[in-house]
Structure prediction request, 264 residues.
Amino acid sequence: MLAPDSVGRTFAGAEIISISQPEIDAFAAVLGESDTTFAPPTFTIRITLAQFQNILTKPEIGLDWSRLVHGDQKFEIFSPIKAGDLLNCSATIETYRIAAGNEILTVRSDLHRGPELVVSSWSTLVVRA
Amino acid sequence: MITIGDQLPEKVVLIDRAMLKSYADASGDQNPIHQNEEFALSVGLPNVIAHGMLTMALVGKYLTDWSGGSASVREFGARFIKPVIVPGGEKVDLTINGTVTEVIGNHVKIDLVATSAGVKVLGMAKAVVVKNELQ
Prediction:
């Protein structure tokens, strides 16, 4: 169960994430995209889900990641990601409810390049009963 | 000229276990339900399933092929309503269609439909792309 006082909290990213050309190339290759000047639009899920897992499974938050299902996903892209970007990722637990024993939470991720917000995304995560 | 109701050309992408492994490595999502049949069955799934985010990424590629590259997407969202089931040794289809629902300046809103084996796998799949030729 999620600790109730964690809803509404924003967790600052602990480190700067450096985006490399090989990781964009690998992601694009799976999709058959040969132009890797910019990352494919869903590329940042790679950063975001890892960040969510780090935060939400902390003992004081208490989410069981092994029973987690991804319910939905939305991206707003203000500036596309490219190799060499140095990004900071903060995460906010926006909503939390329990339905039929399942825990359902919405988590927002904000990626900044320096002061500039480049991608916001929202994930609905379901922890199955 | 792009107008409301325009259909994007249908595309069929084939998904197999090798693609799931490549996506797991490229995305960092190594959840065994996407690679290990025994594990998938043990948690009540019908077989290994594709990552919802792989499905969404492939629909994203469909979008950007039409709109003019990876940098052209401004908004993109979808609900994962049914899994894409990927049996060993098989290639399953992901069939993608899109319809223009709004055009404002060079911003185009698209409704997307994605099915696999005739079953709709994404719900509320929508995007806003910048179509530069509309500038």
Summary: The beta strands of chain A are 10-11, 17-18, 68-77, 86-99, 102-113, 116-127. The mean pLDDT of chain A is 93. The radius of gyration of chain A is 15 Å.
